[in-house]
């Protein structure tokens, strides 16, 4: 689908972004294995989470839609899932595949997980390795790529040091460990989003966090209590609007009720380092997560370095940070971000290629990129989404700051995480 985005000088208004994608996936999975009925409000109704929902239904869980973004899930406990009679399709969603592989590895039945063309190219050896160490029978006949065949069975606990700071990997191991009896210890090389830990604790699981260690305590039998959750707005989706508001020549934009969990909100620290004018108002706690309304004002940004421990806390926001860098004064250096190469597409390559098409000066490095602002971008050409929602939305925000606008091909992929992105963008462009 072709998407034409025209330049805009003023961004203003008040908006609400859809529910957090990571928390929505986890709400569906954990409520399915809780003992009794859970209620989810504000669930992200985007392709990725609908894939997880479809799979939980295929596994015998009753999930009922009560109203827009409101669902009840009749959890059947840790032993209540049933073998599906077909392969389980994760679509474009890495989170679905990695978390569910962990869950299914300990279920007493056979499952096959597959996904779309992009997901079937993403590395799954990172979960196959540790899950196999726990005794899982999980195979890929395609060199660590999906489809994955899982012959579920009893697993044993372990102590495991993650080779990459990945929340999907740690969550996969945590889910696989729920039915083991002894202690599981996961050691993180750097902090990554902790939604799984928060939600497991909230559902009554005995989990201890000690410095870089996550300890699932020894238990005769573990069980999850059903829960009610209001999913906060997704900071990764809000980031596109924060960038649009900061880069505009004028205007004030209020984004209501966004999750600001600090294991996830490194983007806000980068905005501060770039001199962005942003205020966090009305701070609260919702669904076990800190939230705030974010007030964004047009700003004069300056370049900065983004590297080290902050990377896992803003990994999905790097494409939009690169857009901000084009319009910021001075150089922006992004380092230690090789993980970007194994997302929905190689996000370093995609940003570099499409920026170069637009005449933007950018240097590609193995683990990131370097961008010198302030660049005038003429636009008036067609660019590609690379079948990656975050690339498509980043290019849309860049288009607002060009002279002639940009045409983005393959924009239908935006519905992976943010189905009403285009409507919201039209609403704030003045
Ligand atoms: O756990 C999650 O919900 C996610 C973790 C991150 O992936 P990694 O765990 O591969 O870093 C992130 O990129 C993805 O969008 C969502
Ligand atoms: C990488 C992403 O998601 P996933 O890994 O779930 O496909 C993303 O949403 O940017």
Description of the molecule:
- The structure is a single chain.
- The chain has 430 residues and is α/β, with parallel strands linked by helices.
- The protein is 29% helix and 25% strand.
- The chain is built from 12 helices and 23 strands.
- The protein has helices at residues 21-32, 47-58, 94-105, 125-133, 167-177, 195-202, 235-247, 266-273, 318-326, 347-357, 389-400, 421-428, and strands spanning 3-5, 13-16, 35-41, 62-67, 70-76, 88-89, 110-114, 137-139, 148-151, 159-161, 184-187, 207-210, 213-216, 228-230, 252-259, 277-286, 289-297, 305-306, 331-334, 362-365, 368-372, 382-384, 406-409.
- The chain has a 4-stranded mixed β-sheet with strand order 2-15-17-16. It has a 4-stranded mixed β-sheet with strand order 4-5-3-14, covered by helices on one side.
- Helix 3 (94-105) runs parallel beside helix 5.
- It is globular, with a radius of gyration of 21 Å.
- The chain starts with a strand and ends with a helix.
- The model has no long low-confidence stretch (mean pLDDT 98).
């Amino acid at each position: 689908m072709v998407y034409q985005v025209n330049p805009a000088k003023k961004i203003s208004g008040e908006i609400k972004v859809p529910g957090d994608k990571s928390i929505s996936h986890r709400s569906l999975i954990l409520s399915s294995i809780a003992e009794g009925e859970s209620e989810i409000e504000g669930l992200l109704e985007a392709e990725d989470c609908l894939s997880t929902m479809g799979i939980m239904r295929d596994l015998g869980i009753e999930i009922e839609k009560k109203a827009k973004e409101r669902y009840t899930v009749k959890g059947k406990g840790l032993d209540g899932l049933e073998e599906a009679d077909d392969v389980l399709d994760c679509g474009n969603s890495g989170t679905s595949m990695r978390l569910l592989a962990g869950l299914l590895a300990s279920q007493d039945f056979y499952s096959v997980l597959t996904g779309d063309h992009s997901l079937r190219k993403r590395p799954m050896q990172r979960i196959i390795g540790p899950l196999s160490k726990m005794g899982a029978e999980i195979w890929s006949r395609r060199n660590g790529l999906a489809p994955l065949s899982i012959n579920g069975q009893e697993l044993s606990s372990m102590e495991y040091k993650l080779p990459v700071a990945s929340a999907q990997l740690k969550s996969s191991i945590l889910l696989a460990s729920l039915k083991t009896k002894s202690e599981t210890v996961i050691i993180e090389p750097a902090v990554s989003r902790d939604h799984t830990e928060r939600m497991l604790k909230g559902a009554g699981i005995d989990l201890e966090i000690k410095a870089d260690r996550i300890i699932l305590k020894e238990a005769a039998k573990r069980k999850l209590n059903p829960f009610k959750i209001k999913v906060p707005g997704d900071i990764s989706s809000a980031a596109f609007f924060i960038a649009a508001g900061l880069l505009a020549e004028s205007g004030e934009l209020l984004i209501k009720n966004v999750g600001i969990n600090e294991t996830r909100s490194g983007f806000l620290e980068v905005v501060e380092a770039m001199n962005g004018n942003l205020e966090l108002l009305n701070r609260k706690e919702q669904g076990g997560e800190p939230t705030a309304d974010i007030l964004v004002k047009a700003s004069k940004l300056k370049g900065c370095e983004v590297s080290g421990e902050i990377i896992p806390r803003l990994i999905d926001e790097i494409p939009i940070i690169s857009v901000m860098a084009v319009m910021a004064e001075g150089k922006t250096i992004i380092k230690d971000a090789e993980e970007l190469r194994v997302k929905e597409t190689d996000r370093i390559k995609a940003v570099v290629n499409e920026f170069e098409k637009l005449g933007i000066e950018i240097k590609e490095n193995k683990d990131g990129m370097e961008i010198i602002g302030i660049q005038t971008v003429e636009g008036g050409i067609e660019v590609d989404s690379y079948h990656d929602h975050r690339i498509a939305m980043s290019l849309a925000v860049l288009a607002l700051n060009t002279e002639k606008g940009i045409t983005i091909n393959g924009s239908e992929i935006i519905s992976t995480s943010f189905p009403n992105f285009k409507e919201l963008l039209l609403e704030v462009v003045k």
